[in-house]
Specification:
By secondary structure, this protein is an alpha+beta fold. The chain has 4 helices and 8 strands. The radius of gyration is 15 Å and the shape is globular.
């Protein structure tokens, strides 16, 4: 699918030719499906392999990208206003955001990888159904569910963060 920029949720598949510079003001989620890639952000090198999930927050660019020959990824990107429209009632987003600035790579176990891939594929499929009368609300609800899955994954791997029960 071709990379597009809009007020909603957009997808891309070709990480080797993905324009990270154009997305510096957006939230970018990358699920590495096969192969590996690496990048530098804030003078720190990050290595990503199959099964890893990367969340790049707005305003912090990536440089020095390198890719394995067989790299495949699902890339989902959107503005922060899309996330805010989901209205998640948890303070975890603030703590998670700070932690992701330090390390944007989540190492997923097999079940978490399967859930994330299924979530992203479902969001992509339903996002394409623009004729749906409640399209924006539906895709927002699917994104909210995915973000809550990511909160759960991140919280389980970062035990020093306290979770608000809301």
């Amino acid at each position: 699918m071709k990379e597009t920029l809009s007020d909603g949720i957009s997808f891309a598949d070709d990480i080797c030719n993905f324009n990270f510079t154009a997305c510096i003001g957006l939230v970018v989620h990358i699920l590495c499906v096969e192969g590996s890639f690496s990048f530098t952000r804030n003078r720190t090198r990050f290595n990503v392999s199959s099964g890893d999930y990367v969340i790049l927050t707005p305003g912090i660019g990536v440089t020095c990208l390198s890719f394995s020959n067989n790299v495949k990824a699902i890339i989902m990107f959107f503005s922060e206003s899309v996330v805010l429209s989901c209205a998640i009632r948890s303070n975890y987003g603030v703590f998670g955001h700070i932690s992701l600035i330090e390390n944007p790579v989540l190492r997923l176990n097999h079940d978490d990888f399967r859930h994330c891939r299924k979530d992203m594929e479902n969001i992509r499929e339903r996002n394409a159904e623009t004729g749906h009368i409640f399209h924006e609300e539906m895709t927002g609800a699917l994104l909210k569910a995915h973000i809550l899955d990511l909160y759960d994954i991140h919280a389980r791997t970062d035990r020093k963060i306290e979770i608000n029960s809301q």
